[in-house]
Design a protein that fits this description.
The chain is α+β, with helices and mostly antiparallel strands. It has one domain. It has helices spanning 28-46, 86-95, 100-124, 142-151, 158-176, 179-195, 203-211; strands at 8-9, 14-20, 51-64, 70-79, 201-202.
Length: 244
């Protein structure tokens, strides 16, 4: 069951040790920092989640998720932007079909936030225009599998889930590129690079950094974009972020 201040991580749940694995590109810390900063800005700046801490690693680090499963990750973003399993949501919709619209809005925002991390990383590398469901398929990474899981209760067909994710991620590109949003990503990433994985970036500081650029949580009560049931985005309802 989702709880008010449930700690949810975008890549893993908690650091179990400082064990590192060799063979990492020299610029990996910066890539990781932008990835986690993207998640943090979406969760905190756009959706009003509480941030506990954010961390980026220069090398893949062994961690355990909340189910105590070992994972090797390059970053960690812990916020209160909780999620439930597809199975739990499906059961809830059977019992409370009137929740379908609100549940779907939550799923859209969740998929947007999931995509914000990978997008920030590839935008840093100058490849942001290639960020879509084709170049980032729904399997093969934790983020993409989470996106697939978020949409599963609403689209049984995998192709439709991919189409819906692609529609949402189109808006991820447009909104995350807005100058005030991207400036927040850059500032959070800069702080993460300075820490060099030695310590997490405190949640209160994350709020302060993002708050310089965005009024926190401006889309917390509504879907950031409207996606029709066929997975197509309604361009006329795309949102423009505002400055604080």
């Amino acid at each position: 069951m989702e709880q008010k201040d449930e700690i949810v991580t975008d890549d893993a749940e908690k650091i179990s040790s400082s064990n590192s694995i060799d063979g990492v590109e020299p610029d990996q810390l910066t890539r990781s920092a932008y990835h986690e900063a993207g998640h943090a800005v979406a969760d905190v700046g756009l959706f009003g989640a509480r941030c506990f801490d954010v961390r980026a690693f220069a090398q893949p680090t062994l961690v355990h998720d909340r189910h105590n499963r070992p994972l090797t990750v390059l970053g960690l973003c812990q916020t209160s932007f909780g999620s439930q399993s597809a199975e739990m949501i499906a059961r809830d919709l059977i019992q409370h079909p009137q929740k379908r619209a609100s549940r779907f809005a939550q799923a859209v925002n969740r998929v947007f936030s999931i995509g914000a991390g990978p997008f920030a990383q590839v935008e840093l590398l100058g490849c942001g225009d290639e960020f879509d469901e084709i170049n980032f398929p729904m399997s093969g990474s934790t983020d993409m599998e989470d996106a697939d899981d978020a949409l599963r209760p609403f689209f049984e067909n995998e192709q439709k889930r991919c189409s819906a994710a692609g529609s949402i991620w189109h808006s991820t590109r447009e909104i995350m590129r807005q100058p005030n949003v991207w400036a927040a990503v850059e500032d959070v990433a800069d702080e993460l690079v300075k820490l060099d994985g030695r310590a997490p970036l405190n949640g209160e500081l994350v709020h302060s950094i993002i708050g310089r650029h965005l009024p926190l949580g401006q889309f917390c009560q509504t879907p950031i974009v409207r996606v029709e049931w066929n997975g197509k985005i309604n361009r006329s309802l795309m949102r423009q972020t505002s400055k604080p």
